[in-house]
Every structure is written in structure tokens, then in C-alpha cells.
# Entry
Amino acid sequence: MSDRAPDQAANLTSEVHKDNQWIFEHGTAHTIHRSPFTRDGGEGFVSPTFIAIDHRVDAQAARIHQAPHTWLSDGTVQEHLSRRTLRQPQGVIAAQEIFGPEATGGYYVESVPGFGSADDFEAHRWVLVTEPRDGQSEPNVTTVPYGKKLRRIRSKLRRRAARRSGR
# Structure
């Protein structure tokens, strides 16, 4: 083992903390819904794709959901997505990119990190969508923990915020 290994581990940990902080500060909660398109991962592995809807678009949520749902139901679109000929990269596509500014708040999400099978989807109903810092890569999609884990995280964040504000 080299003398530099601990420094590299510390740098990696520091980068992860910076990324997590960016997601925490800039991520927006979205509900996640299965789309009608199921992606073929090869060798018999298939995985669902998703439509994410910003929680702040209450009045337009049904309309914003319907547009990508209809689009993803089209066989030609599914073929392009399967062959990856629609656009590169295509893991997360903002609905306004396809449908215009009226669809702001929706996303097509090819996969969500942390989801294993379609059954895992049932345990998660929320994700954070974070626009990239560089403005050039795709938005980042992060699962939101649930149950006891979410309560522990929220409690920890409240304590941290209280310390920062001097309460």
C-alpha cells in the first residue's frame, strides 16, 4: 500500500461530501411514476423507466405527466430509446426539451440509482432531481430514503440547521 492511499481516500470522501451537499442544497423533490416503456437491459434483464414530476407543479401535474406518458407509449419513440438513437446522453430528459416550456417540471428518467428490480420501485415514491453544476451534463437523480431512515436523516438535518442558526 502506498503512502498516498490515505490522501486519495480523503480526497474521494471530500468529493462525495461536496456532491451530497450540492444535491441537498439544490435538489428538488419529485414524485416518481412508472412509464409505459420498459427498457431491455440485455440477457433477459428488463427494467422500468420513469416519469418524475416536480412536487411544486400541483395544478399542471396531470398534464405534465400525460405528455411524456403518451410520448413513451409510442412504438417509434420506444424503438429510438431502445437503440439509443434519440439523443446522447439520454438517461434523463427534461419534458420541456421535448414539449416546450409548458412542460417544465417533468422528466423522463431511464433508470434510478438504487433501484434493482421493478419491485424496488414500490418502496420509493420520491427522488431528488438536481440540475448539474456545469449546465452541460444531465440532471442527477437521487432516491429519497423512506421510513425510519428518512426520519433519522431529517432529524439530523434539523439539529444541524439549528446549530447553524444559533438556536
Observations:
- The longest helix spans residues 5-26.
- The beta strands are 28-42, 45-54, 92-94, 106-109, 126-130, 140-143.
